[in-house]
Design a protein that fits this description.
This protein has helices at 13-19, 25-31, 39-48, 55-58, 69-72, 133-136, 143-152, 171-182, 196-199, 206-214, 233-244, 263-275, 299-312, and strands at residues 98-100, 103-107, 110-114, 158-162, 189-193, 218-224, 248-254, 279-284, 320-323, 332-333. It folds into 2 domains: 8-81, no CATH class; 95-333, TIM Barrel. α11 (233-244) links the parallel β6 and β7. The protein contains 13 helices and 10 strands. Strands 1-2-3-4-5-6-7-8-9-10 form a 10-stranded mixed β-sheet. By secondary structure, the chain is α/β, with parallel strands linked by helices. The protein binds pyridoxal-5'-phosphate and iron/sulfur cluster.
Length: 335
């Protein structure tokens, strides 16, 4: 966290970027030369789930296009406030899966640690937009109980750092956490779920690479990109540095109406990921969270899109289409 007391020289470039993210809808519309008539609705929807987008991510959007697929992921819209009966606050049953403060344990052999509620970007479709992260995450003190939960369950081979975005934490805060995980003998793998290498590639700096080099655990990073235009030259460089450091890279996406709901876009996304050393992992059907109904692509259409994707790509570039069903022992394959 950046506080008034932090001397300027200790703030890294990525922290400055993070602090300067766009949070004012009026500024976003101005930068992108969009119709100011969008503003009142954007303000109303942002009062429920705030706007947040790093400037470098916004710079990848096309000016003057209200339907830009990157913009659609972050622009608060009036439609979010319409009542949609089947869309819930906690569609994936996360509350029920809290095993200890800050730990979600749903699946065999891996547990997910909620290390922070903070994200560099606020994705309008996020199933966590309504989740009480402030209550559920492991704060620095509560890490102790989360860590003892992991240490006590010898069936665990993998710990997943999630949130929020775990790379929102400074290296200074991540470092003792990684060291503590390192000391749990049955853990073999460290997996990080983060959108930051995509939306804030500055985060992948020497400090982070040093930190990742110090752990004995095998390292997996699952990034989150939904559209090929999210992957620009800087993102590619960041991902290549991670790959060169021995981190296994995957991507997960969400199938989103008006963003990536075509075979052509998904094919381009897989190609762009592979060019950056990343393999596609999951393509999630939208979790039915309140405020995100307008993003939904239903199962029959999703399966039809995937049929075309499979015809156009080698098998290793085809993501697995899945949905998360509360109470199931794994993500459920679709189609
Ligand atoms: C999705 C998820 C995982 C990871 O599942 P994988 O199939 O291993 O990628 C782990 N824990 C929780 C709680 C999850 O929601
Ligand atoms: S970065 Fe991930 S956790 Fe954060 S808002 Fe976006 S989808 Fe949700």
């Amino acid at each position: 966290m950046i506080t008034a007391k932090t001397p300027a020289r200790q703030i890294s470039a990525w922290q400055r970027e993070l602090a300067q993210a766009i949070t004012d809808p009026a500024e976003l519309l101005r930068i992108l030369e969009l119709d100011p008539a969008l503003l009142p609705a954007a303000r109303t929807a942002a009062a429920r789930f705030p706007l947040r987008a790093p400037r470098g991510f916004v710079a990848r959007m096309v000016k003057g296009d209200p339907d830009d697929p990157l913009l659609r992921q972050i622009l608060p819209l009036a439609v979010e406030l319409e009542p949609t009966p089947n869309f819930l606050a906690d569609p994936v049953g996360d509350r029920a899966a809290v095993a200890a403060a800050g730990v979600l344990h749903k699946y065999h052999g891996r547990a997910l640690l909620l290390v922070t509620g903070a994200c560099a970007v606020h994705c309008r479709y996020c199933f966590r937009r309504e989740f009480p992260y402030a209550e559920s995450r492991a704060s620095a003190d509560a890490w102790r109980s989360a860590l003892s939960y992991l240490a006590d369950d010898a069936s665990l081979r993998e710990v997943i750092l999630s949130g929020g975005d775990p790379l929102s934490l400074s290296d200074r805060r991540l470092s003792p956490l990684l060291a503590a995980l390192d000391r749990i003998p049955h853990l073999e793998r460290l997996r990080i779920h983060s959108r930051q290498p995509i939306v804030l590639p500055e985060r992948v700096d020497d400090g982070l690479l040093d930190l990742l080099a110090r752990t004995r655990l095998r390292r997996v990073l699952v990034v989150h990109a939904n559209h090929p235009r999210e992957i620009d030259g800087r993102v590619r460089e960041a991902l290549k540095r991670l790959a060169a450091a021995g981190v296994t890279l995957f991507n997960q996406s969400v199938l989103l109406r008006g963003v990536n709901d075509s075979a052509a876009t998904l094919v381009e996304l897989s190609e762009a990921l592979f060019a950056a050393r990343v393999l596609p992992y999951y393509l999630h059907l939208l979790d039915r969270v309140r405020g995100a109904a307008h993003f939904e692509v239903k199962e029959p259409e999703a399966s039809a899109i995937m049929k075309v994707v499979r015809q156009r790509l080698p098998g290793y570039l085809v993501p697995r289409l899945v949905r998360e069903q509360p109470g199931q022992p794994a993500k459920t394959p679709v189609g």
